[in-house]
Amino acid sequence: MTIVLNGEERQAAEGTSVLALLKSIGLPPGRVAVEVNGSVIRRADYPGLALRERDRIEVVHFVGGG
Prior knowledge:
By secondary structure, the protein is mostly beta strands.
């Protein structure tokens, strides 16, 4: 299926969860915020939220510094 991740089309397996998507792009789930179709998703929901065709996902990761 085709999803839109941070403004770019990307292929994902049907039923891919938010957690599986994060793992596939190498981002730790504890250090990101995820929005799907304009709604912020709670971290507890990452494993059970299956993505659908043409979903728009925005992932923002936090960077520490001093």
